[in-house]
Specification:
There is one protein chain. The chain is mainly alpha-helical. It has one domain. It has 8 helices and 2 strands. The chain has a two-stranded antiparallel ribbon.
């Protein structure tokens, strides 16, 4: 991640502002599932989720504001993400790597983004990002 542009306080605030919305009481990241039906030729369509507009907006922001790590390793990113103590001390570059895993995993597993929210991974990343707000970088 040598060419990573500097992250602005506004970019951090934009992401962390999703914390209360993604984790509001009763919030469900997946509104409904479609697909999974048997077709006339005997094959099945793959089920896929319809996400809440809040989830769509969050991942659109992640994908458009320099939060993605193009050289990330999915395996390493997930190992880091699963370790709560490492997330609590993660650098901005490590946060980018983990956010990339959360965003891009949907390509390989329908419902991945919803699972990342429901299991609290996104919450922990956003809480760590909040530590970067205000007076300098931890």
């Amino acid at each position: 991640m040598a060419d990573t542009p500097a992250t602005t306080p506004e970019q951090i605030e934009a992401l962390t502002s999703f914390l209360p919305r993604l984790y509001a009481d009763g919030f469900s990241p997946i509104v409904s599932w479609s697909g999974g039906e048997k077709r006339s030729d005997g094959s099945f369509s793959v089920p896929y989720p319809a996400y809440s507009p809040v989830v769509e907006e969050f991942f659109r922001l992640v994908s458009s504001q320099g939060w993605l790590d193009p050289g990330y390793s999915p395996e390493q990113a997930f190992e880091l993400l699963k370790d709560e103590s490492r997330v609590k001390t993660a650098s901005l570059d490590q946060i980018r790597t983990m956010l990339t895993f959360c965003a891009r995993g949907e390509r390989f597993s329908e419902g991945h983004r919803g699972e990342m929210i429901e299991r609290g991974y996104i919450r922990r990343l956003l809480e760590r990002l909040k530590a970067f707000q205000g007076s300098g970088r931890p």
